[in-house]
Amino acid sequence: MRRRRPPPQAPNSAKQAPLFTNLLDIVPPEARVRRIDNPIWTENKAQLIARYLYYFVLITKHGTYIDGFAGPQEPEKPQMWAAKLVLESEPKWLRHFYLFDSDRHQARRLRDLKKAMEKGAGKEKRDVRIYEGDFNNRVREILRPDLIRPNEAAFCLLDQRTFECKWRTVKLLAEFKKKPQNKIEVFYFLGIGWLKRAISGVRRESLLRDWWGRDDWPLLRKWSEEQVLNELVARFRTELGYASVKPWPIYDRRQGGGVMYYMIHTTDHPEAPALMSRAYARAVRPKESMEQLQLELSANQSARKS
pLDDT by residue (tens digit) across 275-288? Predict the structure, then answer.
């Protein structure tokens, strides 16, 4: 059996001499969830998102789904297309979908997907809107209370191609909802497997500056992948104020089982970390029946309250 890599260690701030205070020195650790023994492979990451949302809507009974880079990354493999899997999910309690892509071919695929969904739709209609263009520039078009209602659960997938998503965009999403409402949940993909190579290859400094969103972006060229990851996790908690931020590893079979991505899950909902842990463990298994799962979730909620 292949030994799993140990979790990344926190940056050593004394050696780095960062321009900013290392957030990991001041952020207390959050409660742990059950350790996962079964890895999620790159070909299963879309199934992870779809399974988590399946669990979550059984609690909320409603929801809005936002996908900033929604076109299929491998069009010949529809099982890896998150937007398609989420749109096909049952029960159809996620009602509003805002799907973005800057590539015109990808936008066409999204429009074709919408037409296919509408053709097969029954009584339960879903509001699906396609936006062709840069998510960073167009995200403000949906950050309106008439589109994303304050009391409705909202989720945003940011499966970016390395540096596509600017930090200011993540900040806009995090700050849109005000307390006591929960923030928009974010699934933020960090391409850890090639991060150092990608950083070294960047010639346009503004790309890294916009992606990182801080003036200490030159440190990215010095830090390890694990240091970048841990600093991002800490920033989601401190700068953006999320109650729970957990990085979930996504492995690659073709790279000897190494970690290719981290999916950073950010949420304010108290049930969400346990639901993500369950989704990670069961993403590729047959779905539990809705009745079985509702009984389990109700029992778990009651146990935590007692």
Answer: 999 999 999 888 88
Distance separating alpha carbons of residues 191 and 264, to the nearest angstrom: 11
Q: Which residues pair with 246 in a beta bridge?
A: 265
Is it true that domain 34-305 has CATH number 3.40.50.2000?
no
In this structure, are residues 220 and 208 in contact, taking their beta carbons and an 8 Å threshold?
yes
Q: Which two tokens stand for residue 157?
A: 């997938």
Q: What is the residue extent of each domain of the chain?
A: 34-305
Q: Which two tokens stand for residue 6?
A: 């140990």
Cα–Cα distance for residue pair 100/289, rounded to 1 Å: 32
Alpha-carbon distance 169 to 135, whole Å? 8
Enter the pTM of the model: 0.85
pLDDT at 254 over 60: yes
The whole-number pLDDT of residue 303 equals: 61
C-alpha span between 257 and 236 (Å, rounded):
27
The phi, psi pair for 116, rounded to 5°, reads: -65, -40
